[in-house]
Amino acid sequence: MLKLYSFGPAANSMKPLLTLFEKGLAFEANRLDPARFEHHADWFKAINPRGQVPALVDGDKVITESTVICEYLEDEYPTAVSLRPADSFGRAQMRVWTKWVDEYFCWCVSTIGWHRYVGKMVQGLSDAEFEEKVKAIPVVEQQVKWRRAREGFPQDMLDEEMRKIAFSVRRLDDHLRDHEWLVPGQYTLADICNFAIANGMQFGFAELVNRQDTPHLVRWIEQIAQRPAVKTMFDRVELEKLGPRD
User: Domain GST C-terminal spans what residues (predicted)?
Assistant: First the structure.
């Protein structure tokens, strides 16, 4: 059976979770707790040496990187529910949006999320305890991000990321003004991967994402949230509670 190692249904962990639920595939869910730094534990780094979720185990194969996992599931497990266009042009359009969310949209939202929430997980640690946690992180860039989250991100960086978020939600809203889905005519991995980042922004970034300023984006978020697979996913997989943990 497929085994998925992930956090809760948000951001990059949501992408393969929602893909599995949309396709109706049976899988073993292995929920890691970021507040306990389980993704940096030796047992998990034996699965993914980078110490990052999500990771999919399919027999003797390990697949990492959230969008790649989604495409792998489409390749290896075709179902009546297809999340990728059948024609080359449609697939190209889909990949433009999945590339954009991975390389641009996700990163600016992530930085603000780390600033607001993730850094709280290490506030109660002593300097020595924190450095011990950081030593277990195999990716140098992630070590830097943890230190910034603990110390506080520079204001000019936060301002630039908010500018990028404003640009991103405007781009999505403009496109969705004329299209039901990101790839015209079909709900695809493009929608899943962007929804994983955009969901909840009408609350967390209400000054940017709201019915007055981005009505088409809000419509799209709410429309996806009403899909049966999305409701089932949220019913079965609990969201994270980020913050200091005893």
Answer: 87-246
